């Protein structure tokens, strides 16, 4: 097991539809599934077989800039389960992507890719703050995390 301060307790379990997301993340790329039908091209998240706009089953994975804004966040307070208490004060943030504000990803705000989950000062977290995706490997899976554009 990786460092207890950085390892998430819930490691993603990729399914067939979402596997490319994790494969690209392992290369340090944030990609979102996009419809590949001519004239559509809508992004969709979470990944799924069929486009809800045009019902096409054709898809591609479009690279995102990794830029976004904090749409919402939470800093859990005690009482916490013992394993979580060891990581506190940590945060969970929801990020809306710059290219697709209606697509929102859940993650953690940290001070650098491999920094501990409690590395970001909860008092500095603001809704609307600009963030950038970074990637770290943990539990055998590379996950996106987020750092402030202006720390
Ligand atoms: Zn479509």
Index terms:
mainly beta; OB fold (Dihydrolipoamide Acetyltransferase, E2P); 2 domains; 5-stranded antiparallel beta sheet; 2 helices; 8 strands; globular; binds zinc ion
Give a written overview of the molecule.
- With about 150 residues, the protein is mainly β.
- The chain has 2 domains: about 15-65, no CATH class; about 65-150, OB fold (Dihydrolipoamide Acetyltransferase, E2P) (Beta Barrel), CATH 2.40.50.
- Helix content is about 10%, strand content about 30%.
- It has helices spanning about 20-25, 80-85, and strands at about 30-35, 45, 60-65, 65-75, 90-95, 105, 130-140, 140-150.
- It has a 5-stranded antiparallel beta sheet, covered by helices on one side.
- It is globular and about 50 Å long.
- It starts with 18 loop residues before the first helix and ends with a strand.
Write the layout of secondary structure elements.
Blueprint: H1 19-26, E1 31-35, E2 43-44, E3 59-63, E4 67-74, H2 82-85, E5 92-97, E6 104-107, E7 130-138, E8 141-148
Antiparallel strand pairs: 1-2, 1-3, 4-5, 4-7, 5-6, 7-8
